[in-house]
Design brief:
This protein has 5 helices and no strands. With about 100 residues, the chain is an all-alpha fold.
Length: about 100
């Protein structure tokens, strides 16, 4: 299943804040998945908001490198096969 742009961006954001150098994940889909999952686990339930805040900080502090790093993260996520599971539709229950 292809992910939506929002899911791709969120996964790339987790990869961005993993602090891993691009060379570590650029051509290694297994490492990309591993870094995304580790970062999501580390950040916990509010991880997306925390990751977005960290990305915003990096763009403000280091715009010359942040944009290139995010492009590499997006490219790595797009070329990695992430399985996105969508729950089955629930049937209405009448009482």
């Amino acid at each position: 299943m292809r992910s939506t742009p929002r899911v791709t961006t969120t996964l790339a954001t987790f990869l961005f804040v993993s602090q891993a150098p691009v060379a570590e994940f650029a051509k290694n889909p297994a490492r990309t998945r591993e870094l995304v999952h580790q970062t999501a686990d580390r950040l916990g339930p509010d991880g997306v908001a925390d990751a977005v805040a960290e990305v915003a900080y990096e763009y403000g502090k280091h715009p010359e490198t942040a944009a290139a790093h995010m492009r590499a993260c997006l490219l790595a996520v797009k070329s990695t096969d992430f399985r996105t599971f969508v729950p089955a539709a629930r049937l209405a229950v009448s009482r």
